[in-house]
What does this fold into?
Amino acid sequence: MTTTDRTGVATLPMPDLSRTFPGPFPTSPHADRIQAHLGQWLHRFPLLGPPDARRTLCDIVAHGVARTFPTAEPDGLVLCADLFLWLTAFDDTYGEAAAAGSPARLVRRIQGCVHLLADGEPPGDAGPFDEALHDLLTRLRTRATAAQYLRVTGCLRDVLFGMLWEAHHLAEPDHVRMHDYLAVRPHTVLVRTLIAVAEVVLRYELPEEARNSPAVRQPESAVADLAGLLNDLGSYARESAKGVPNSLNLISLITRAQHCDIPTAYAAAARLGEEHAATARHGIDRLATSDSAPLQQHAEALESIACSYIWHIDHARYTKA
Amino acid sequence: MTTTDRTGVATLPMPDLSRTFPGPFPTSPHADRIQAHLGQWLHRFPLLGPPDARRTLCDIVAHGVARTFPTAEPDGLVLCADLFLWLTAFDDTYGEAAAAGSPARLVRRIQGCVHLLADGEPPGDAGPFDEALHDLLTRLRTRATAAQYLRVTGCLRDVLFGMLWEAHHLAEPDHVRMHDYLAVRPHTVLVRTLIAVAEVVLRYELPEEARNSPAVRQPESAVADLAGLLNDLGSYARESAKGVPNSLNLISLITRAQHCDIPTAYAAAARLGEEHAATARHGIDRLATSDSAPLQQHAEALESIACSYIWHIDHARYTKA
It folds into this structure.
């Protein structure tokens, strides 16, 4: 296991993924181009006020997406980057602490998004988040097949619901069952959306039979679980360094469930992460050696999605206290 | 305009739909068979306790679905009926007043549904609602194309979100803007789900280009708006007769927006209903005379869906105080 030393926090174990997902991870040559585009898109749709927040977010989204789909063409990358910028900015603006203070306000905000996701027209008084989402959905519809569009918009609804779920539980984490937390996490960490977006960005389509098979579902779930867990380890460490660890976090849930201290919970989570990584690696390798081109492409997508989450937890957004 | 005389309520005007949607409405010869099936399905998945509530619900769902799709084959009708039984029982059990008391509880309940809608496995401790939904989704997946399945499951998410939206606003209806209410209503009245289910029940598929055209969207929206409005007129009269009119209702919203009394608001809503009906009639007639078979089938579906809502407001569930 590797260890991470953060200000104000005891050295906490991180999962050792050096054998399952060894770096360095490939990245797209278009990262700078994506970042420049994101700046322009944010100028058109001013989702975030402070210039510092804009720059940091554009940087992590551009470089994250460049690692998520290192072989993709620029037009697909840019669509994916805009979508993830929107989701992250929405969560930063309306989710988390802001939402916990008034879930009803978040419900009203999300209702506008649901209206657009359900093919409604933007309202006359649409703000930048509605306008930007409308722009995204129009572009997504142009690029995706009908099923791909519906799959992605289904995932977006689940992300928004996940934010609501979090908003209702931040204040009462004792009501949260581990099982429910683990079910919601792949949505709020956006990995399910990324998996759905992969086909649109990389232009392939899984046959329906394969999509619903254990051979595809198992590595998808393992990557999804790994992504949530890595994000939790990273964010818990970051929040702890600020002195306000998030109570809705796998680490906190483990300490409560197992009546243990933080380092013990961290170690348990790290081991779990190694198990998810091993399951993902096994399933991805099997898909990669199938004789179906879309399954091979899906294996490649799952691999780079996993790598992007591993890369993310070392990015400034997470390591800066 | 026709008038309806209900115990304890002044005579309130209802929209005159005798020229746009004249009855009597055709009904399926399989209504009794559907009703018998629903009884068995509720035996397998005990969603409702009181035998009286079961009987009433099975009756209205069976006869409603028989009018919604009068020409459909029994297997499609039965799937649709189970789905609508589930939605209605879920709302009766967890939505409305129960939810307003604890939106967080409804969020937790819905989370289990979202998990299944997002292809998750049923949990070990799944209750009858989860098990019944899993059964429905399995059957829907077998019968529908991938896009149809995703379209219906997207609608189901919107219905569940609509229940949450309602739960957050029942206690503070003054925060509700008319625009938002009208956007949510087609989801909570289940008409958007019915429109999506129609293709699965009647086995046709709209070409994507047609689906996104004004020629299809306009009558769909008119039927959706008409359905919500009729349901509001019916339920307001029913609740008023009990002395507890629902504050989240078009009538209440009109009285607040226009500072008018109930009969004036009712008259305004009735006129609006007539306008929606005229728009729906015009759009349906245009679709019905197109030279595309799926557009003609869609016209037929929209027509009978509209008729089923007109029929519904006279059913016992609404007229019994």
